[in-house]
Amino acid sequence: MESIENLTQNLASRFPMNPLEPEEFRRQGHLMIDFLADYYGKVENYPVRSQVSPGYLGEILPESAPYNPESLETILQDVQTKIIPGITHWQSPNFFAYFPCNVSTAGILGEMLSTGFNVVGFCWMASPAATELENIVTDWFGKMLQLPKSFLFSGGGGGVLQGTTCEAILCTLVAARDKNLRQHGMDNIGKLVVYCSDQTHASMQKAAKIAGMNPKNFRAIETSKSSNFQLCPKRLESAILYDVQNGLIPLYLCATVGTTSSTAVDPLASLTEVAKKYELWVHVDAAFAGSACICPEFRQYLDGVENADSFSLNAHKWFLTTLECCCLWVKNPSALIKSLSTNPEYLRNNASETNKVVDYKDWQIMLSRRFPALKLWFVLRSYGVGQLREFIRGHVGMAKYFEGLVAMDKRFEVVVPRLFSMVCFRIKPSAIIGKNDENEVNEINRKLLESVNESGRIYVSHTVLGGVYVIRFAIGATLTDINHVSEAWKVVQDHAGALIVDAFLSK
């Protein structure tokens, strides 16, 4: 009979690979940090928007995985020559599209530590520090925003780090749905109505679909330029009354602080008063602009949040924290838990069953979860409230400067008032001789956007507000400074001048 020692040696010889040998990890880790540091050092030299064509990568990579190992050096070389050309560089200082997704040394290092530990923190017992640190940092952040105590663990509410706003909205909508159906009966799900504005992020409509809402009961209430595209409380109440008169059940209102298209801010105080009359769950989506409210001069935009049921913002947008990190606060955690909890035998433990701890698996869609609190903790501690405020103010100041540049050029106009760090502008009709039709003006602005983006020098995106095609200039990249903003405006002016001349010659 083979000895235990020989059996052990034979088995060991069959498994020679150690994919987590500490010293090799150290060596490759240094290579990776050097690679990323070099990338950030030259990121502004790359075309901001990727210039590749669809399917490019399949043409240059092998059709199957390698049988034998390849070195990290070889892999990184392919990253440089094959992957980077297909990246749109969100961290470029010349990235002004969509919304910020800024990062920082602290955010990356916190993410690295979270990934390195690779804990699965679905319940407190699975990694107590992951849960308790999240309790602490969400309370810290809530206090920075001057959220009502009822949103904090210290006041009976609490915060959780979701992946994205889409998840935060879906979780709260499901909680509102189930709470309502327990009162009115499960067979009334087809009568539940969801309200928002036509400027609300599309994640609201997606969440309603997933939550089983009748598509006919989704109310995207029209906004207008006269109110800077805010959701009107009177229009909201009219819609609610109409639905009640038709036997429907008002369920959920999503109000926005900083809409995607124009960073409009809905009047929370007035909207929550209307919602309170009809017992709607109110969620406040402050995905982008919420971070600015740590600054006293912007806190006014959260007035009325005390009457909401839930509030969320994305720390991965404008708070130096890597994707994904959506902060969600709720006044009544039990509403989430009743809808989202699962308690299989293999997860039972004394701490959970005595209600002494938070089990975040019951606050989210997924069961498994990472350790996201580490990166937010790193950011809060590394920069402090003071520096974080100045970082945000710097971007707002650059946006104000850009707004001034637009105003000085008589060919352009600012379409809606700037509130934070995004400017919505366009070539105005009077600058385009013989092209006064709104559709023609929109087409000229569309061509301007595409021309600018094809240059690779900057990247901007667009929206349509009240039928007007608008260019959105969103400042928020970590590496952007005033010189990048000035150069970006010169790029816009040069391309606009060429288009205006072409339009004149073709009239």
UniProtKB/TrEMBL annotation:
Its cofactor is pyridoxal 5'-phosphate. One of its GO terms (cellular component) is cytoplasm. InterPro entries: Aromatic_deC, PyrdxlP-dep_de-COase, PyrdxlP-dep_Trfase, PyrdxlP-dep_Trfase_major, PyrdxlP-dep_Trfase_small, Pyridoxal-P_BS. Keywords: Decarboxylase, Lyase, Pyridoxal phosphate. The modification N6-(pyridoxal phosphate)lysine is found at K317. It comes from the Eukaryota. Pfam families: Pyridoxal_deC. GO terms for biological process: amino acid metabolic process; carboxylic acid metabolic process. SUPFAM superfamilies: PLP-dependent transferases (SSF53383). Belongs to the group II decarboxylase family. The keyword Repeat does not apply. GO terms for molecular function: L-tryptophan decarboxylase activity; pyridoxal phosphate binding. This is Tyrosine decarboxylase.
